[in-house]
Amino acid sequence: MDTSTIATIILVGSFALMLIFRFPVALSLAGSTVLTLLYLHAPLEVVGQRMIQGINSFALLTIPFFILAGQLMNEGGLAVRLINLAMLAVGRVRGGLAMVNTLACLMFGNISGSAAADVSSIGSVMIPMMKKKGYSTEFATGLTTAAAIQGVVVPPSHNLILYSLASGGVSIATLFMAGVVPGILICIALMIASRILAIRQGFTETQVIDRKDVPNVIKQGLISLMPIVIILGGIFSGWFTASESGAIAVLYAMIVTFFYFKEIPFSRMGVILIRTFRTVSMVLFLIAASNALSYVLAYLRIPSLVTDSLLSISHNPIIVLLIINVLLLILGCGMDMAPLILIMTPILLPVVQALGMDPVHFGIILMLNLGIGLLTPPVGTVLFIGCAIGDIPILKGAKAMAPFGLVLVCALMVLTYVPKITLWLPHLLGH
Length: 431
What we know:
Blueprint: H1 3-20, H2 25-39, H3 45-55, H4 62-75, H5 78-90, H6 96-112, H7 115-132, H8 137-147, H9 158-166, H10 172-200, H11 214-237, H12 242-261, H13 269-299, H14 302-313, H15 317-334, H16 337-354, H17 359-373, H18 381-390, H19 394-417, H20 419-428
């Protein structure tokens, strides 16, 4: 075997071995990079340089701003107000509480940008509420975990920002625009499926907001939705960048949380900041380590080798894209979403570009694909959180989630082969 082949085996093998021994993903990325460079007799200074270069980006400011805004609004009781707003919209129809759950997950995802935050906040309210109204715990948990995946597709998804960085600079604003229509269509599909399954299983209880409470529900719901209006309105109009919109969203979240709703004291700000810094530090370390790995991948020409290999199977875009989707669904079962974005984007993006696919379109497909991975054991983070909230075994939660997971897979296929759904809004707005 030649040097490049042996180096590739060392890179992939050491990374897999470290994951098996439960090393943190970021350390596994950095460690496998160092071992490969040692074999290649390359200077190890490259690792440090590439790691620093990976986080030396102004666009990265977007991530801590959006995470902090989401934490503030979550602490301020945002989930309950959005659930009430969703209840006002669809709560009165048969099986409406299931639809309320789905719609509330979409609205909260538009604030938090995180599927894990979505299932934690909405699930802690909706799962007990649905149980009280006669829904089974399994149904409520399965629906909530699947509906939470909307948060990885719709803006301001943190994972879309990671994809922008990993892809070499695809516009964050354009990715946010591209996620709007797919997010709405996924929500509609899940709402239809949840209502049909709820009625078939006899879960037909409704939840009606008292007429006297309607004005207050609308008012508080709209106030809670204002951060996404600020983010999307500012970006789409060109008034400010994604980073600036994040900063403004944080300011708005602080005012609403501490001085309008007043559900928590300002003294909680320290706890919120610590939690935010902990999350941001993990994300930045992961980005830094993946940038070093990307250097070695490029040096070994692995992206071009993967492109040639996939295209040697078939030049038919339908077949190649199906293979890529299956590959990502399998990988999503064994690794968390963020590292997979950072690892697989530089490998697969050249493949889809060779087929003529727009990088923005691929970004949305990648988000939904790896988002489904958050629902599948053994690393299904969102599934685990949902089952913990519902207090049911993982196997029961996975079984109850399966019909909604199938809806998500069908949505993935539609979005893969009908690019106009994803690209319509960016093209309409001139991006």
